[in-house]
User: Fold these one by one.
Assistant:
Number 1:
Amino acid sequence: MAKRPTTFFTVGYEHTTLPGLIAGLKAAGVTRIIDTRDVANSRRAGFSKKLLAASLEEEGIGYIHLRPLGTPKAGREANRAGLMDEFRRIYEASFMRPEAQLALLEAEELICAQPTALLCFCGDGAKCHRHRIAQALEEKGLKRKEIAFR
């Protein structure tokens, strides 16, 4: 019987390019991305949902968008303004919604099936909603590794 993966990765693409992201994912052995952005569009070339999914697929990396895990607009605005307590309060309320908790369970199942990374824009995981998602997954016994670019 194959051992189930117990480690997941987190990654932000703020400080990299699409080829850099793909290289980092491959180096870590990641075979699937879970996009945790509320809105999977980007001003950065290659990071909008359809093109990102197609580019990853060409490299043998699966893509799934779990929108309920994303940060609502008010939270993104608070984060950009540096209002981190407000950002965390807004995100926590969103994260506790039933649809977000169902998406968290789906993420856990996906992680346990194959090497998976949680993706969003923010290059600093500590200032990002994916930190909260990762904490919840760690509470379930999974281990986190950050893929960092600088």
Note: The chain has six helices and five strands.
Number 2:
Amino acid sequence: MTENQIGKIVVDVAFAIHKEIGPGLLESVYEAILAHELEARGLKVQRQVPISIRYHNFQFDEGFRIDLLVDEKVILELKSVESMNRVFAKQVLTYLRLSNRRLGYVINFGMSLMKNGIERVVNGLNE
């Protein structure tokens, strides 16, 4: 399955979850539910995946954590806040670059309209 195919499933599932339970829950709740729903659709989902950082000849494992990694290809950064912030997409782009992946999403379940809470982030992926 390609990144774009996975991304379509992710977006569809995120919309369905938001429609059913709405905004206002903790990020960790959305993470658990989204992981469960994606796995129910046959996707492999890893939660809280560490990303190490290489600096000169050193590797630091104290780097970042990906909220959800889907099929080893798509990074999901989940939020549950009232508004989107530009730094969220920059964060995902950093994760993509550090992990050599091409597609990620910021999914903010805190928005009243889900369409305003999803941002696609690419790193060299053909549209």
Note: The mean pLDDT is 94.
